[in-house]
TrEMBL record, chains A, B:
Keywords: DNA-binding, Transcription, Transcription regulation. GO terms for molecular function: DNA-binding transcription factor activity; transcription cis-regulatory region binding. It comes from the Bacteria. InterPro entries: DesT_TetR_C, Homeodomain-like_sf, HTH-type_TetR-like_transc_reg, HTH_TetR, Tet_transcr_reg_TetR-rel_C_sf. Residues 38-57 bind DNA. Pfam families: TetR_C_46, TetR_N. Residues 15-75 form the HTH tetR-type domain. This is Transcriptional regulator, TetR family. It comes from Nocardioides psychrotolerans.
Length: 201, 201
């Protein structure tokens, strides 16, 4: 796993090659921070030359941003709610996928959070896009307002809920003692309806 | 305001002078990011020489960390709940002070959050201390468990609530449209008991 073999390589278009290398980069990010993900590491894991990687990505900066964008796209895709079902049930499926994504891709996710908060504008933009995709989804998937009615206060509360969810998952992943995965999921899932209850008006 | 006059200067001990300069630094941080708070700016506002400031703080790095630590101490002190009253009422007073602190010291607070998340270990440590002081307080001020019983899941939820509160205040400060300060306070205050209700077991 993780190697681009000579056999597959010749059959792929440059676009497909680039995409495959980004997937590898995202996989490597699961256990590495962005700082630890160098062109050298990718070249070694992919079994191709550094020169070829520079051909695809220009420099380390561009490479990192492309990998993070791919990671954010993966996160958005993997947390897409099922097409049918009750709004709350669909959101629970989405939340569970989010928790599993962060737990599995912990180091890379932390890198995105840190990079976004630390003042890298591109990472900030990617992070905000991913965050919006997740929070906007609450309103889109619940267009009838079964769970929540779309108001400025509700938008604010859902943003707060998303920040809380991220904090809960990251904290739990760092030290899960005393709280099971099921309890964590129950807390996150039940907290949205609970918070809706405190919206004024 | 903000100027250390020659008259007061001669009467102060070096420790008091340093403390006064830190207070000025914190005040300047209300409308500036940490990056914008230079030794030059402080020297000009304090009306003293850069050389003297270097004497007190060594270098810009040490100066910044000292200012941020002072800001965190101020935050903790200003958000101390009143000595008497019902636990929930005391916590509401504390939360209101926190919201007002962040709104008033917005730029400096953002700097602390960014610096802590962005990988500056000292800022991270100061931020974590301040965050713990605020979250531990919930359990200390409510030792009888009127609002919340001290369990690993409850500690996790209170951490999540603190992250949510920070997100709510920062987001609202950046764009308050459609949500009044009173509504914001109501949301933050009511959300803790609401979240306690979702703790399993």
């Amino acid at each position: 796993m993780g190697c681009v073999t000579a056999t597959t390589r010749v059959r792929l278009s440059p676009e497909e090659r680039r995409s495959q290398l980004l997937d590898l980069g995202v996989r490597l990010l699961a256990t590495r921070s962005l700082d630890e993900l160098s062109i050298d590491v990718l070249a070694e894991e992919a079994g191709i030359s550094r020169g070829l990687l520079y051909h695809y990505f220009g420099n380390k900066h561009v490479f990192h941003e492309a990998v993070v964008r791919r990671a954010a796209d993966d996160l958005i895709a993997q947390t897409a709610p099922p097409a049918s079902g009750e709004p709350l049930e669909r959101l629970l499926t989405s939340v569970t996928a989010y928790v599993d994504y962060v737990v599995t891709n912990y180091e890379g996710y932390l890198s995105l959070v840190k990079g976004a908060a630390g003042g890298n504008d591109t990472l900030r933009e990617i992070y905000d896009e991913a965050r919006s995709a997740l929070t906007d989804r609450v309103f889109r998937e619940d267009a009838q307002g079964t769970i929540i009615t779309d108001t400025p206060a509700a938008r604010l509360v859902v943003r707060g809920w998303a920040a809380m969810t991220e904090e809960l998952v990251i904290t739990w992943r760092a030290d899960p003692s005393g709280v099971s995965r099921e309890e964590l999921l129950e807390i996150i899932a039940a907290s949205l309806p609970a918070l809706v209850g405190v919206i004024p008006g």
